[in-house]
Automatic annotation (TrEMBL):
This is Cyanate hydratase. GO terms for molecular function: cyanate hydratase activity. It is an enzyme of class 4 (lyase). The active site is at 91, 94, 117. It catalyses: cyanate + hydrogencarbonate + 3 H(+) = NH4(+) + 2 CO2. It holds the Pfam family CYNS_N. Belongs to the cyanase family. Its EC number is 4.2.1.104. Catalyzes the reaction of cyanate with bicarbonate to produce ammonia and carbon dioxide. Keywords: Lyase. Residues 78-149 form the Cyanate lyase C-terminal domain. It comes from Nocardioides aquaticus.
Length: 149
């Protein structure tokens, strides 16, 4: 029996097909009717993709059932040290290193003792024009989870 393709290999196939077909992530997400950031993360291997969505993505990208099968699998979500050194990703680490303690204090002040969920969570990205150069606006929208005894 042939093993199931890894999610990492499926992600490489998806991204190569997307680039070769001249499609943006936004175009793929619009075609699938799914949120942009979720779609990008899912097709890069960070979420299990529902069967119908996996089939639709592979049809759009001219990819086979083997890729759709891999996309449906549950991922193993681990921090990749190589990814953390990418300048864009590193800036997120840097921003949270600087502002994380303040955000934690403000969450506790506003909501009480608890955390923002990264499971019951949405994230969005937008461009905001600015005379000094366009701004990147990233919105984290997570459910507040209070600590309970």
């Amino acid at each position: 029996m042939t093993p199931i393709m890894t999610k990492q290999d499926a992600a490489r196939h998806v991204d190569a097909a997307r680039v070769r077909n001249g499609l943006t992530w936004a175009t793929v997400a619009d075609h699938l009717g799914t949120p942009l950031v979720w779609t990008t993360a899912a097709l890069l291997g960070q979420h299990p993709v529902p069967a119908e969505t996996a089939r639709a993505a592979c049809a759009l990208l001219d990819l086979g059932d083997d890729v759709a099968e891999a996309l449906r699998q549950q991922p193993t979500r681990v921090a990749d040290p190589a990814v953390a050194t990418d300048p864009t990703v590193y800036r997120f680490h840097e921003a949270l290193a600087v502002y994380g303690p303040a955000l934690k204090a403000l969450i506790h002040e506003e909501f009480g003792d608890g955390i923002m969920s990264a499971i019951n969570f949405q994230v969005d990205i937008a461009r905001r024009p600015d005379p000094d150069g366009d701004r990147v606006v990233v919105t984290f929208d997570g459910k507040f989870l209070d600590y309970r005894w």
